[in-house]
Amino acid sequence: MRIDIVCVKPEILSSPFYHSVIKKAINKGYIDIIIHDLKEYGLGKYKKIDDYPYGGGSGMVIRIEPVDQCFSKLLSKRNYDEIIFMTPDGDLFSQKYAKYLIKKKNIIILCGRYKGIDQRIRDHLISKEISIGKYILSGGELASAILVDTLVRLLPGVIKNKESILTDSFQKESNFISPPIYTRPVIYKGWKVPNILLSGHHKKIKHWLEEMEQLQKIK
Ligand code: ADE
Predict the structure, then answer these.
(1) Residue of the nearest CA to atom 6 in ligand 1?
(2) How far from the centroid of its chain's Cα atoms is residue 93's Cα?
(3) Which of ligand 1's atoms lies nearest the C-alpha of 134?
């Protein structure tokens, strides 16, 4: 899978993509993530990418030309299955959508900034608008990192312990909750790991975990 991320603040993405699972996935060749700095496609000597909104109002708007030029360059080299715009008023991101997206070969993610982007980008160049939640971030970069992290851990081979991905809470669409989990020590400050988990009785443990999961659901 190849993901091209087009943004104004590429430096924000250096940390999430160059550590942990995503870094491993890139190094192992499971995924290509290419970050494009929109400023490289800016207009004139000062590489201008934004301008005042028509009709007035505060804040700057990302112009269409830099975005179109960047997209055109990418589209001239390969086909893209989806061109996503990260925006708080998009469709709410979900595990279900991640599972759909992971099957795609090439995607572009555009991250917004400032007051917003020229509506014509949304109308003519974007195929899907995604929100990671009903709150407003300073830009789409962090939102795109969340989307990419969710995708990467679904790629076959990325997470070693397959069992762990399959039993992940959120993985099952109908079930957003996992049973409680514990590790050593058995007792900390008098707080004890449930005896059943220490019993070694796999059938009983499985039954207990299922019961706990049901309880969590109705909480
Ligand atoms: N850009 C700013 N806020 C966002 C959000 N909540 N989701 C996606 N992109 C965003």
Answers:
(1) 88
(2) 8
(3) 6
Its CATH class, for the domain covering 174-215, is mainly alpha
Q: How far is CA 80 from the centre of its chain?
A: 18
Say yes or no: do domains 2-154 and 174-215 share a fold: no
Identify the DSSP state of 48: B
The residue extents of the domains of the chain are 2-154, 174-215
- pLDDT for 218: 74
Mutate to test the pocket of ligand 1, among 85, 134, 135 (most ligand atoms within 8 A of CB): 135
Q: What span, in angstroms and rounded, lies between the C-alpha atoms of 202 and 4?
A: 45
Q: What is the mean pLDDT of residues 183-195?
A: 98
pTM, to two decimals: 0.91
Q: The domain at 2-154 falls in which architecture?
A: 3-Layer(aba) Sandwich (3.40)
